[in-house]
Amino acid sequence: MSADPLVFVPVNRWSELKDLFKSDWPRSISGFTILENLERILQLGLDYGFKVYCPFGDLSNGMVALNVKNTYYEVVVQIANDDTQRLEEALNNTKLIDWSQSVEVPFAPKHVMDCVRKDVRLQKELTFKLLSLEYVEQVDSVWPHRYPGSLWYFELLTRANLGYGLFNGDKLIAWVFIKEMGALGHLYTLEEHRRKGYGELVLKLISNILLKQGKYVVAFCLEGNTSAYKLYTKLGFQRTDEIEWCTMTAS
User: Fold this and answer.
1) Terminal Cα-to-Cα distance of the chain (whole angstroms)
2) Acyltransferase: present as a keyword of the record (predicted)?
3) Do residues 151 and 136 lie in contact, with contact meaning Cβ atoms separated by under 8 Å?
4) Cβ–Cβ < 8 Å for 34, 65
């Protein structure tokens, strides 16, 4: 059995990590301060299980620390340089992190969070794949802005391999489309599966697919849709401009 890519770092080596974080000041200040404070906590005999690891045993590849606080599952990810390739590889292949539960990644610099967002794990009962035509009527039937001809539109996008669904077993529970102009749209989770993070998961998965294809990730958000706006900004989307749709009729 192969060794885990995350290698344990004992307390007596934390000073080496702190020196690396100091060399990347102030971007890596939080990596430095959490180690400094945990050293003090441990000296007081308050060892609650904080564990530090580094990818493939090389401290320059960064730090991944399991900071489980009672029932709160936190994974601290920090690296003192811009090369996150080995860090990403370790996050993708480690068995030490329980990705099946809600994982909080705190105070991560942008280059770290960009790396973490690429590492999206599906629960074993979930799959994310292209939609087939058998699901088009289901998609159209629950779309809030359904109109005569919208079924034809969803068929077009599906035939063009621009529709993706999240499945629990063989049941479609959430989906997203890439509209013909290239923007994400029609993100939807069935009512009985909401408030479980599936919308966020679908956005992460489709964004990763587009990024790996070297494409731009663009989305529109209707004015007043604060929940969607908060979700997009949480995932790193940046507001660029206001645009309008208009319908013109003859007078």
Assistant:
1) 75
2) yes
3) yes
4) yes
